[in-house]
Amino acid sequence: GRLETSDCESLGSASGSEGDAEYAEGVSLPDMDLELLHDPEDEQLCASLMDVVRATLGRAPLGAKRCSRLLMPAQLQEQVRAELLRLACSEPCGLRGALLDLCVEHGKACHDVGHIAADPAVVPTFQLTLVLRLDSRLWPKIQGLFASGPAFAPLKLSTGFRVMKKKLYSSEQLLIEEC
């Protein structure tokens, strides 16, 4: 028996001129500007959230009694901003529904440095744990930092980070992304 072609196949092959076919081949979804899919409110909220992240890192508690000034390189800020927006785009409230736990990893230790609600007026729908790393090239210079005494210089963060996303309204599995 002969298989019949679907209506879509027969319509596509039977209609249009060669010029139309050439035009259709030249257009694809990946060519579209995906920035149109971002919510402008989320963009503004994310900029404010990044300000709060930088301020929190500026007074990060890395030891029992110590606070350190952690510097976030511009490249890291941009990567984190893009990742936060990407992870929020599938959420019912967008970035407004995010709870952000901020951690800094050095060696095998991970220090909790802050908890930020993206929009305190919104019931959180998802939790992001952002794990930043100290620049490993600085390790010999900072070994004494975690002992007692004042911090003398700000510490720079590495451009590598990890984000864990947990939906608070679903039993869906934990999503971990390493950047």
TrEMBL record:
<dbReference type="Pfam" id="PF07809">
    <property type="entry name" value="RTP801_C"/>
</dbReference>
<dbReference type="GO" id="GO:0005739">
    <property type="term" value="C:mitochondrion"/>
</dbReference>
<dbReference type="GO" id="GO:0006915">
    <property type="term" value="P:apoptotic process"/>
</dbReference>
<feature type="region of interest" description="Disordered">
    <location>
        <begin position="1"/>
        <end position="22"/>
    </location>
</feature>
<comment type="similarity">
    <text>Belongs to the DDIT4 family.</text>
</comment>
<dbReference type="InterPro" id="IPR038281">
    <property type="entry name" value="RTP801-like_C_sf"/>
</dbReference>
<dbReference type="GO" id="GO:0001666">
    <property type="term" value="P:response to hypoxia"/>
</dbReference>
<dbReference type="GO" id="GO:0071889">
    <property type="term" value="F:14-3-3 protein binding"/>
</dbReference>
<dbReference type="InterPro" id="IPR012918">
    <property type="entry name" value="RTP801-like"/>
</dbReference>
<dbReference type="GO" id="GO:0032007">
    <property type="term" value="P:negative regulation of TOR signaling"/>
</dbReference>
<keyword id="KW-0053">Apoptosis</keyword>
<keyword id="KW-0963">Cytoplasm</keyword>
<protein>
    <recommendedName>
        <fullName>DNA damage-inducible transcript 4 protein</fullName>
    </recommendedName>
</protein>
<keyword id="KW-0496">Mitochondrion</keyword>
